[in-house]
Amino acid sequence: MINFIGTGSAFNTQLGNNSAYIKKDSHFVLFDCGSTVFSRLVSLNLIDDVSDLNIIITHTHPDHIGSLGELIFYSHYIKNLIPKILFPDKKLIDMILGSMGVNNEFYRVINSENTVINNSNFTMEVSFRKCSHVDSIPSYGILFKLGGFTLYYSGDSNSVDTFVLEGLEKGSIDFLYQDTCGIDYDLNPHLYLGRLEKLIKPELRHKVYCMHTDSQFNRDEAVKMGFNVVEAVIDFKSMP
Ligand SMILES: [Zn+2]
Ligand SMILES: [Zn+2]
Question: Rounded to two decimals, what is the model's pTM?
Answer without folding.
Answer: 0.96
